[in-house]
Write a structure and sequence with these properties.
It contains 2 helices and 16 strands. The chain is mainly beta and 215 residues long. The strands form 3 sheets. Strands 1-6-15-8-9-10-11 form a 7-stranded antiparallel beta sheet, with no helix packed on it. It has a 7-stranded antiparallel beta sheet with strand order 2-3-16-7-12-13-14, with no helix packed on it. It is globular.
């Protein structure tokens, strides 16, 4: 009996170490075709879908596939992202979303035949910033770190050396949906892949500062 209890405890501990699994996450705008295999999510991105609000184009869309879990507090999230991008604005990456008027999406976006590192920040209206790559890449690592009322966004080609590409505001002390997103605004969809998705809890910064003062 003692052996069984220890084995069960070890199994639960092992399962806990894997953290949030893709199978337990929730779809917003579930695509018609998707699969999770050995920790990798593949999806056939819904044609003519996107996330954008009002600015520049004059319309609002909120209909692209997004697989998410909900997190409070501070955290780091990252994933390895690739796709068979075909036409203008095909994109895949991470999204942090409070609601339809407050979200951040970031990843690779294919524009006019070039790969761009892209960030869209929406607070009622959307803005868009890009870093154009000088050559196509087979994949990209994207990482977002939520601390207090800010999100720092990084990219990497090897999951070792990360470069920050944006620091943007997001309301703190507010639960946020965080996960994997892809869109094909102008196209008929494409195959997107997400590997090594991981969310790591970060201790609350204010609490750490309080503890430092009250040791």
């Amino acid at each position: 009996m003692k052996h069984l209890i220890l084995t069960a405890a070890a199994l639960l501990s092992s399962m806990a170490s894997f953290g949030q699994t893709l199978e337990k996450m929730t779809w917003f705008n579930e695509p018609e075709e998707w699969a999770v295999d050995n920790g990798t999510l593949t999806m056939q991105v819904t044609p003519q879908s996107d996330y954008w609000r009002i600015s520049h184009y004059g319309f609002t869309v909120d209909d692209a596939p997004f697989l998410y879990t909900t997190r409070g507090g501070e955290f780091e999230v990252k994933a390895k992202i690739s796709g068979d991008y075909k036409v203008r604005f095909d994109q895949a990456g991470l999204m942090l979303r409070i609601d339809k008027e407050n979200y951040i999406k970031t990843g690779i976006e294919y524009v006019d035949g070039k790969y761009n590192l892209s960030v869209v920040v929406t607070h009622h209206t959307s803005d868009w910033s890009v870093i154009t790559l000088d050559r196509p890449v087979p994949y990209i690592w994207i990482k977002a770190v939520r601390r207090l009322d800010a999100v720092e966004i990084f990219y990497s080609f090897d999951d070792k050396e990360y470069t920050m590409m944006r620091n943007c505001w997001l309301a703190d002390n507010t639960p946020v949906m965080v996960g994997l997103v892809a869109a094909s605004p102008d196209g008929q969809g494409f195959k997107a892949r997400f590997e090594h998705f991981k969310i790591s809890h970060l201790p609350d910064q204010r609490r750490l500062e309080w503890l430092e003062k009250h040791q």
